[in-house]
Records
---
Amino acid sequence: MSEDQDVTVGVDTHKDVHVAAVLDQTGRVLDNRGFPTTMRGYAQLATWAESFGTVAKVGLEGSGSYGAGLLRFLTDYGLTVVEVDRPDRSTRRRIGKTDTIDAESAARAVISGRASGTPKTRHAQVEIIRALRVARRGAMKARIQAGGQVESLIVSAPEPVRQLVRGLAGKKRIRVCAALRPGTVSDPATATKLALRSLARRWLALQSEIDDLDSHLAALVTAAAPDLVALPGVGIDTAGQLLVTAGDNPHRLHSEGAFARLCGVAPIPASSGRTDRHRLHRGGDRDANRALWRITLVRMRCHQPTKDYVTRRTAEGKTKTEIMRCLKRYIAREAFTHLAPRPTEQAPWPVRLLTADEFTATIGTPPTPVDVDEPPPFDFWPYYDAIPHDHFAGHDFSREEVTNVWQMPDDIHQHVLIASGTPNVFMALVLNLRTASVLGHHLLDLNELYGLSQPPMTA
């Protein structure tokens, strides 16, 4: 076989044996073979694949489970690995399912471009956090189960036993149960005491285990993403989950929208014919979605700018569910900027501060409001990040909240207003829709322009 050709490898991973298939760039199967899930087997797989030509890409199923070891080896070996989902169900119905067919399907998914995602690496600090979170989650479930069993036993316990814990709750009740001395098991009362003592001591042991894991996780998460932990409403647990979702290589996610889609908070197009709409995304990482939901709840209750936003959107007729969906998307974007910060030294367009006359010249009458929740015509945030700090004139724009979008009647210019912490003060970005570029920016101070006097918004 010629060594000058490019080949694509597909791997169907299992616990003991990985099955690989090699295809040329036209989709022709060159060979397939199984390899043991050991370091020697991984080396044999890589050498065997290279005997057919230059390995362009390797499509790997189960890169986060059975294929994790092979992923580490192939990455260190210098090969490009692409994450592949399970084979399409229609393929299984038409030609059946075997390990060889699955390996070939993985390679074809890479060749066709249907699979193009970069798998998460598992060799740095986030993998340490993930492993500890797995242990903590198991301990939490076991502790909750033990606590529930204690409660159910007390409810049905003989009256003398119930008298011992009557009026007690929480840890005080657990400690009393752990200190019981049942003696010889000769009747239901002594048997219940023995069971309560066993469950209570199990609960305390699990609590000690959780406290120990929490101390390690707090140090690791704070060191890995200090800016993320400092965000309002973000705790160690939710920050740890978002770190695990992004992985050790968050830059594999090409945009904030990709991270929002990964967390299941980005709406999915559901248009047909003349209907243009989106539907709720029920996929993605549900644990990350749950973490964003918890952050949203905390902010809605304790974060004043978010409470003001909820009040304004409620007055506009939005339901609580719709408001929470918008907040979750915003928080996902905000979190991603701290997981994988966008480079600020370069901007795709020249950064230009527009004068008042230049800004006014782009305004047409009457402008049409655009729903701020609609996807923007292009990603203008790299331009916003490159704006010099002194152009903000001391106003706080850290929330990066788009409050108004105005479409001008010339169908060329669009104004995006980003709110500051000061009422009626915005950073206005002027978009050119024809060239898909940012014309410039202007600090729009309506207080100064119209002689308004408003107290500054609290942070």
---
Amino acid sequence: MQDRFSFFPATADRLADIEAVFDDCADGRNCRCAYWYLPNADYKAGWGEGNRNWFRSLLTEPRPSGMLGYCENEPAGWCGVAPRVVFDRLRRSKPFAPVDDRPAWSINCFIVRKSFRQQGLSRLLLKYAVEFATEPNVSRHTPSTGLPVLRTEPSFIRERSRCFWMPVSPKWQDACRQDRSFAWNAAEYFGNPGIDNMA
């Protein structure tokens, strides 16, 4: 079944396919990942068309902002991934403060179109997003912050698992349980099953 899927960095020439994935998700249709990148006031003011226009401009930057998954050439899923420093909300977050001083990449969003759910696509999107973030040639896409090539392990896994030790409202508990499965998949991907022991 996995042979039906293929994965590519999200570049401007794939805009129509990326928008097809976002438009199949009620919140994704209006958010376009702006929640993580923009100050809260700008994100709320842009809800809808403003965020859609902002996202189109994001795709013109040299560094792809995520991975796009296809199922037999039809756009099926999205995974946002970028250096942690570009996410305004993470930079200002106390609960999601860095776990150490090492540069890290963060995965901020998963969207799978309804007709492609329950087929293991999220796990594959995670795998290819992590591979993209750790490729040596990704250094040419990193922001001009003076940071070295960013890597995901082990900070990536710890940051993704941090929310499981925070008080979470009932509204977000299901999402965090899903995130936990993604974190476990990342731990398995790096051959590090001891995720529960990470601070």
